[in-house]
Amino acid sequence: MPTPSARLPRSSFLRFAWDLTYRWVPSSRRTRVALSLIVTATIAAGACSNSEETSSLGMRRWGQYEVAVETRPSPPREGHNEVVVIISGEHHRPVYDALVSLRTQASAPWVQAIEDGHVGVYRRAVNFGHGANATLQVQLQRGDEQTVLEFPVAIAAQP
Q: What would the 3-class secondary structure string for 99-145 be?
C-alpha cells in the first residue's frame, strides 16, 4: 500500500517529512510528529530570511581569498548605506582576522569596518554622497598582505 504522501510532489519538504515519520514513528503519533517537523522547518526558514533587501556588488578574488560586497538597502541610496564585506579563504572558510577599510572617494579617509563575530563578515555605514554612480574602494590587510579592490555602485535617488 502506498504511503499517504504519494499525492505530494517528489521534491517537496512535506513529502520528505511525512515519509520520514511514516517509517520511523508509531502510527499513534505520526500526524503530530509530521506537523511539528513542518512547523519547525517553516519557522526556521522564516527566521533565516531577511525582509530588508540586499544588493550584491559582486565578488572579487584576492589571492586565495574570495571577497563579496553587499549593500543595504538595495539599491543603495544617496547618503549613508550599510556595506557588508564577506571574506572567505580556502575551502570557503571565513577569514576573520583581516583589517577591512572602506571609502567612496579617493580624497576621503579610510574608515574601518567592524568585524561581525568570527564569521568573516565586516560591516560599516558609508556615505555614497550624491549622484548616480560611485566607486566603493575596499582596502584589505591580512598579515603582510594588502590590496585595494574597487566595486562600481549605481546609486538610487532618495524617494
A: EEEEECCCCCCCEECEECCCCCEEEEEEECCCCCEEEEEEEEEECCE
